[in-house]
Amino acid sequence: MKKILICLFISFLSSIQLKAGTELKLWYNSPAKVWVEALPIGNSRLGAMVYGGVGKEEIQLNEETIWGGSPYNNPNPNALAHLKEVQNLVFEKKYFEAQTIVDKYFRSSANGMPYQTAGSLIINFSNIDHYNNYKRDLDIENAIATTTFKANGIEYKREIFSSFTDNVIIMKLSANKKKSISFSAKFNSELKTEQGCGIDNIFIKGKGSDHEGIEGKIRFDTRLKAKNKGGKITVSNDCLKVENADEVIIYVSAATNFVKYNDISADPTARSLSYLDKAFSKDYDNALKSHKEYYRKQFDRVELNVGNKRQDQSVTNERVLNFSKDKDLSLINLMFQYGRYLLISSSQPGGQPANLQGIWNEKLLAPWDGKYTININTEMNYWPAEVTNLAETAMPLMSMLKDLSVTGTKSAKVMYGCKGWVTHHNTDIWRCSGMVDAAFYGMWPEGGGWLSQHIWQKYLFNPDNEFLEMYYDVLKGSSDFYMDFMVEHPDYGYLVVCPSNSPEHGPSGENYNDGSTAGGTTMDNQIVFDVLTSTLKASKILGKDQEYIKKLENTISKLPPMFIGKYNQLQEWIEDVDDPKSQHRHISHLYGLYPSNQISATKTPELFNAAKQSLIFRGDQATGWSIGWKINLWARLLDGNHAYKMITNMIALLPDDSKKNDYPNGRTYPNLFDAHPPFQIDGNFGFTAGVAEMLLQSHDGAVFILPALPDDWSEGYVKGLVARGGFVVDIDWKNNSIDKAKFYSRNGGNLRIRSLTPLGGKGIKKAQGDNPNIIFNNYNGKEPIISKDANIPAAQKISYYEYDIQTKPGKTYSIRGIK
After folding, report:
1. Is the peptide bond before 463 cis (omega within 30 degrees of 0)?
2. Which residues neighbour 396 within 8 Å (Cβ) at sequence distance 6 or greater?
3. Are 631 and 643 in contact (CB under 8 A)?
4. Residue 281 class from Cβ within 10 Å (0-12 exposed, 13-18 middle, 19+ buried)?
5. Is the peptide bond before 561 cis (omega within 30 degrees of 0)?
6. Cβ of 81: how many Cβ atoms within 10 Å?
7. 84-88, 511-515, 790-794, 815-819: which is most confident
8. Which one, of 256, 265, 211, 263, lies nearest residue 430 by Cα?
9. Taking Cα atoms as reference points, which of 306, 332, 327, 309 lies closest to residue 714?
10. Which DSSP helix (H) or strand (E) runs through 278?
11. CB under 8 Å to 289, separation ≥6 — which residues?
12. Other CB atoms closer than 10 Å to residue 742's CB: what's the count?
């Protein structure tokens, strides 16, 4: 009996220790001095950065539709007449000459419009000078930021959240002594604005900037209103003042005239007042309760604990600074969930997709305009959406795809004389679809093709034929473009995309004068293969026209295979010209490994090894978002320790951009934003997706549990991840091996489980043959062509166990590890 009690007590202590590592707060002991120390809150539409100042508080504001410019599109009508000339130059290997023609005749003068800040709310407090016991935090379990401190013997507390349910920002100011709250509040902005007041509120009205010849026509209206207990409120000119209050609740609303990409007819003032008045009529406790309930309905679906080795309760920026030596595994839990917090807070149904900044931007001209870079970055934003059980956050991306399939039809026709639709490497809120930026970067007609695969992946995670039918024409339109646009390569005989590039560099690196314009790059071939095969599968599932299905199959048969080059690498270009010393941030030819499934250990071992060699050549240091991609790539290579090394490289402090020289490998800011540098949010999302990929994979014919578990993550659990086929998965592990797992089947059908260790459980049978669940059936590409100079090592055999369970919709199935 005594032994049993001791074991139970040890188990209880262990559970407490694991739980202690899951506290999901960012916290600091001083106010933010720079933007990357401030804390982000958001409800998808309204974003704010909270500095946590004492005598002076700044709340930097964003509304997701405040952009420069106005409705426009940018296809260059001169491109078509020079298309054949460019293709011929590429095939003659005159890449710079081809690039020069593209620059002259394909590029537009409008290179995308900037995402812009609304400005800031500045609150100046009276009689607060010296303070102590300071703390500010961001609670990502409840989506609320809090600042507390003591001044003049009085304890102050400030809570702020961007309400999902009331569509305003709400801030509560309180103190433990009556008549202690006095302040003045005003807006400021660098945009052209006018400020004033209504009977009980202050406002700032403005317009978005003109940009590259496109007139700024976005109009916005931001307002502040307050309610008090005790004291008094006065409003005059552009200032709201509070004197001697016991408690104050501030409401901030903002709205624009934006309706959709081609409609800016709304009344921003009427919208802003409507949001403000409705929110103001509710009491604070109910507003906070409904906000939390909405948020937690999404956030609480997934729990993660990869271990708790934190030695102290350090402030968050110090934990980042010391991560590589402390192995603070609970910080990984926090970073993983922070990515989910940011996605929920920046992308909800009915809104805009998360852009390069998410929704948080302090500038009028953000880095790369803060728009949608769709040669990796926007796609990366949504890598965590399905697998971390946040499917609804991807709906703004689906809406943007519908829009782009309209605007892109014009670019396909005007620039290339083709059917279907196309976008290039960048777009914005106006859904521009022509070439953006110089040819070295911008001549890349694959943006729409890659984005369209999010439709197919969404279907695979939750097979729903109504959804697939709704977006089928978007998939088909992308396929129609490529089937019309591709030309036969005169040297190889395959159909290829030309002109294009392997994003943002050429064989000699980022050397503009050597040119990047090419034809038949590996990434192009992989994306087109995915576009055509996903359209083919969708056509068969939905019973579409047989002639069209045959056309797809015929075109697929003419696509190039992948090539393995003289360095045993996966070639990035159709010619064997890769530089093994290149450590460029883009790893575009590994798209076929992740996020695609064209390369795997089980089906394409030679390509698997070649992809690994290419990734080794690229090195382990990179920009923040590139490291995020590498976490996923090493997970797909089933190397958990190397994926963890990438995590360690990402969790490296950069105090702010002015300190880049002192922290050359810093990739995480004090507020856990990802550092390119500068800030790009995609790295945060890549990190979250990568951790999920280390624990669960479902791209290769089965649901693979713990495929890339690092040695240091010896004990832990994850609950609520989603596998393709609609299976919700919980996994517990001990001693680096599966202890138990549960699978909830949303849709029914065969569940094939793959594991590195043997499993047992009710209804589980050893798998035989191909997976009968059609969701897991993959089209295989052609056998790779291997250079005669390559020295291919023998393919390393991956040893694993596979089991089948026949599932029914709405049922849960449990398995256990066998020691």
Report:
1. no
2. 44, 347, 348, 349, 350, 351, 352, 353, 354
3. yes
4. exposed
5. no
6. 10
7. 84-88
8. 263
9. 306
10. helix 268-280
11. none
12. 16
Task: Name beta bridge partners: 723.
Answer: 727
Token representation of residue 370: 């803060």
What confidence tens digit (pLDDT) does each residue in 399-430 have? 999 999 999 999 999 999 999 999 999 999 99
Contact 705, 729 (CB under 8 A): yes
Helix (H), strand (E) at residue 269:
helix 268-280
Q: Answer yes or no: is pLDDT of 362 > 80.
A: yes
Tell the burial category of 554 from Cβ atoms under 10 Å away from its Cβ (0-12, 13-18, 19+): exposed
The vertex-274 CA angle with 273 and 277, nearest 5°, equals 80
Helix (H) or strand (E) holding 721: strand 716-723
Instruction: Give the residue from 222, 199, 294, 182 showing the smallest Cα distance to 60.
Output: 222
* Residue 712 buriedness (CB in 10 A; 0-12 / 13-18 / 19+): middle
Listed in sequence order, the residues at least 6 apart from 653 whose beta carbon sits closer than 8 Å to its beta carbon are 317, 320, 321, 663, 666, 668, 669, 670
Q: Are 417 and 80 in contact (CB under 8 A)?
A: yes
DSSP output for 421-461: ----SEE-TT---S--S-HHHH--TTHHHHHHHHHHHHHHH
Nearest to 424 by CA among 538, 506, 504: 504
- For helices 447-461 and 465-485, give the axis angle rounded to 10 degrees: 150
DSSP β-bridge partners for residue 196? 203
End-to-end CA distance of the chain: 26
Report the run of H or E that residue 186 belongs to, with start and end. strand 181-188
Question: Helix H segments across 571-705?
Answer: 605-618, 624-636, 640-650, 682-695
Q: What pLDDT was estimated at residue 308?
A: 78
Distances in whole angstroms, Cα of residue 572 to Cα of each of 45, 97, 562, 785: 39, 21, 9, 13
List the structure tokens of 591.
């798209």
Burial (CB < 10 A; 0-12, 13-18, 19+), residue 510, is: middle
Express each pLDDT in 559-608 by its tens digit: 999 999 999 999 999 999 999 999 999 999 999 999 999 999 999 999 99
Predicted TM-score (pTM) of the model is 0.96
Tokens at 101, concatenated: 């023609």
Neighbours of 777 (CB within 10 A): 11
Separation CA 183–CA 79 (nearest Å):
59
Angle between helices 605-618 and 624-636 (to 10 degrees): 150
Q: What is the DSSP letter of 155?
A: E
- The pLDDT assigned to 319 comes to 96
Cα gap 690→712, rounded to integer Å: 16
Residue 265, Cβ density class (10 Å: 0-12 exposed, 13-18 middle, ≥19 buried): exposed
Summarize pLDDT for 254-289 with one digit per residue, the tens: 999 999 999 999 999 999 999 999 999 999 999 999
Q: Is the peptide bond before 595 cis (omega within 30 degrees of 0)?
A: yes
Token pair in block for residue 569? 């690498």
Cβ atoms within 10 A of the Cβ of 115, count?
30
DSSP state of 558: T
